[in-house]
UniProtKB/TrEMBL annotation:
Name under which the protein is recorded: Glycosyltransferase RgtA/B/C/D-like domain-containing protein
Domain of life (superkingdom): Bacteria
Keyword flag Cytoplasm: no
Keyword list, A-Z: Membrane, Transmembrane, Transmembrane helix
Transmembrane segments: 7-26, 126-149, 161-179, 240-255, 262-282, 322-340, 352-369, 381-401, 413-438
Phylogenetic placement of the source organism: Bacteria, Katanobacteria
Length: 484
């Protein structure tokens, strides 16, 4: 019952701010990015027509959200967030999401009932349904995270578990971004946390050999963990990094028993197959080709950034950095210090292997995404491209929270928690794309992401000064009336 109450509370805290800010006109932007549109309309198409084809809604989409370089629709360009699929038999061209469909599928419990009962497919209704779905998905992830912490990582420390869940949900861009739109990230995090839950359930089972009592339960949980990692992978391919790292954890936990080691690794790998089979099925049936997807197309053309610039940008860029938008994560480095000291003192416990794994996942992810041309997340608030590994980032704080240094750093820690929360409130209130419109030069020249004077925070301060009449405009290209 307590977890149900938490779920309802989290949903309210995610959904209510958008309603308030949108209805009052403080932040009138109903959809954060065109990237989220395919998930919304795929949920509609499945609910009403039992298909992935978005043909019935193509005109509605391009009239409101056309291809950016064809806003007047004079060139007839298909928006970047859609893909075409040609039916060879009928010769008809169909339109589909350019992104994975798992967020749309998880949103069906929200979309399907009202649409089947006759709710019109209007923009207003879709705004409400998409925000509610996003809030529910992130709330569900929050509940799984809370249970995971209480059960495995901080048993008997309920207050710390609740506090860590608060950080996870409200002091990161989960609050300002992920819970506010139908991105892939909320669904990815939910699947990742469920995978981690079954992973820990397996590790707590004493099964010394393949025929021992409890072995079947152990392998079932390993399989379920692999299956949810598979679902995370087909949601965003970056989920393969945590899966691979935890495969190494399995090795270190079972390497002394060859039979259990091979059985565990095979089962963990085999767990990926249901999700991969589903991916192959729906791409073959609807997309006509596995290669006819946005992510597949970008494999050869997306790695255009300098990895050093992207990596450090993800961490410390004034307008996108993890440590700027959620400075509480500075204490990850304190956790690293204590883990290294444990290794030197030969005081390394079984759970410490997981903390090392989580920190490795975070740094591997930011190194890999640092090479991605849109490491800064495009037109979005904060470190969006690092949100795939958000659960691991927060879990990486636990070695610090359980260390002797906790009391010594108590005040700066709570101060950075408050700052992180305040930054997310800033995102809820201010993010509407205007800062990007004023300064965004794209991925070929990222100098705009390193400016302190023209950073997003500084720009938002100037916007407030314009509002109260202290400044005439917030930037050189801004019209004074934009902020009135």
């Amino acid at each position: 019952m307590r977890f149900i109450k938490s779920f309802l509370l989290y949903t309210l805290l995610f959904f209510a701010p958008w309603v308030l800010l949108y209805r009052t006109g403080i932040n009138p932007m109903p959809i954060q990015s065109e990237d989220t549109l395919p998930s919304i309309f795929t949920a509609v198409a499945i609910s009403k027509e039992r298909t992935l084809y978005l043909d019935s809604y193509y005109d509605m989409l391009v009239d409101s959200y056309p291809q950016p370089d064809d806003k007047q629709q004079e060139l007839g360009l298909t928006p970047f967030y859609l893909k075409k699929a040609l039916d060879n038999q009928s010769g008809q061209t169909h339109y589909l999401s350019a992104f994975p469909i798992t967020p749309a599928i998880t949103a069906l419990p929200v979309f399907m009932p009202p649409l089947l009962l006759g709710m019109p497919v209007s923009w207003h209704n879709l705004y409400v349904l998409s925000h509610l779905s996003s809030a529910l998905t992130m709330a569900a992830a929050g509940v799984v995270f809370l249970y995971l912490i209480e059960r495995y990582y901080l048993p008997g420390m309920r207050k710390k578990a609740v506090f860590l869940t608060f950080i996870y949900l409200f002091c990161t861009i989960n609050f300002a971004v992920v819970s506010q739109a139908m991105w892939q990230f909320g669904t990815l995090q939910l699947f990742s946390l469920l995978a981690l839950l079954f992973f820990n359930r397996a590790l707590e089972i004493e099964a010394p050999n393949l025929s021992a009592k409890g072995a079947s339960s152990y392998f079932f949980n390993i399989f379920m963990s692999g299956m949810f990692f598979g679902l995370a992978f087909i949601t965003r391919p970056t989920a393969v990094l945590p899966w691979f790292v935890l495969l190494i954890v399995i090795y270190f936990s079972k390497y002394k028993n060859l039979g259990m080691l091979l059985g565990s690794m095979f089962t963990f790998v085999f767990g990926l197959f249901p999700a991969l089979g589903f991916l192959i099925f729906y791409t073959g049936k609807f997309y006509r080709s596995f290669a006819n997807q946005g992510y597949v197309e970008q494999i050869d053309v997306g790695w255009k950034s300098q990895v050093v610039n992207g990596f450090f940008g993800l961490w410390v860029s004034p307008s996108k950095g993890i440590l700027v938008y959620s400075p509480v994560f500075l204490f990850i480095f304190v956790s690293i210090f204590f883990l290294v000291r444990k290794i030197k003192n030969r005081n390394f416990s079984g759970m410490d292997y997981q903390y090392v794994a989580f920190i490795s996942i975070v740094f591997m992810h930011t190194i890999v995404l640092g090479k991605w041309k849109h490491w800064y997340g495009g037109w979005s608030f904060g470190y969006r491209m690092a949100s795939d590994v958000m659960p691991y980032m927060v879990l990486a704080l636990i070695p610090f929270l359980t260390s002797t240094a906790k009391e010594k750093f108590r005040k700066p820690f709570y101060l950075l928690v408050c700052v992180s929360f305040a930054v997310q409130l800033m995102g809820l209130v201010f993010f509407d794309g205007i800062w990007h419109a004023a300064y965004d030069k794209g991925y070929s020249d990222t100098s705009w992401l390193w400016s302190i004077r023209d950073s997003e925070a500084a720009f938002n301060i100037r916007r407030m000064l314009v509002k109260i009449g202290y400044l005439e405009r917030a930037c050189e290209v801004c019209e004074p009336s934009v902020f009135e």
